[in-house]
């Protein structure tokens, strides 16, 4: 039996744009656009995807490309393209190493990459915090838990290769 969820109507009654999955997607797009605009306003020389990737490497030293792709939700070809750009800009170094029985490429920040993160990362996090500041911590934890449960259910029932 399907639970009916009473949703606030957006004017697009009963179409995909009126459903929770689309509202979640729309929220993500808005956050990414805001992040892109903030980076541009601060004069950051990176796109939002490049920044998120660099920031993830900064807090996961020696991360392999496969794990990085999973965290930033990029397929292998996209993460390779982004890493090539970051490497060309002198912001990361990649080296081959063994993980288990296979060769993997690990990424680490260079001194210039650390400077970029030191200059822009906190402002980006502060902006996210500001966007969510009018919500109580308990409300945000509930949202995070529910979204995590939705992701878990979708992952179990769908063949997703990230």
Annotation keywords:
Arc Repressor Mutant, subunit A; 162 residues; globular; single chain; three-stranded antiparallel sheet
Please give a quick description of this structure:
This protein is mostly helical and 162 residues long. It has six helices and three strands, in the order ααβααββαα.
Distance between the termini: 31 Å
The CATH superfamily title of one domain: Winged helix-like DNA-binding domain superfamily/Winged helix DNA-binding domain
Low-confidence stretches: none
The portion of residues assigned to helices is: 55-70%
Spell the H/E element sequence: HHEHHEEHH
Provide the CATH top-level class of one domain.
Mainly Alpha
Question: How many DSSP-defined strands?
Answer: 3
Count of DSSP helices? Answer: 6
Largest sheet: 3 strands, antiparallel
Estimated share of beta-strand residues:
5-15%
What CATH architecture label of one domain applies? Answer: Orthogonal Bundle
Structural class: mainly alpha
Describe the structure.
With 162 residues, this protein is mostly helical. It has a domain at 45-124: Arc Repressor Mutant, subunit A (Orthogonal Bundle). Helix content is 60%, strand content 11%. The chain is built from 6 helices and 3 strands, in the order H-H-E-H-H-E-E-H-H. It has helices spanning 20-42, 48-58, 65-72, 76-88, 111-132, 137-157; strands at residues 63-64, 92-99, 102-109. Strands 1-3-2 form a 3-stranded antiparallel beta sheet. Strand 2 and strand 3 (102-109) form a beta hairpin. Helix 1 (20-42) crosses helix 5. The radius of gyration is 19 Å and the shape is globular. It starts with 19 loop residues before the first helix and ends in a 5-residue tail after the last helix. The model has no long low-confidence stretch (mean pLDDT 89).
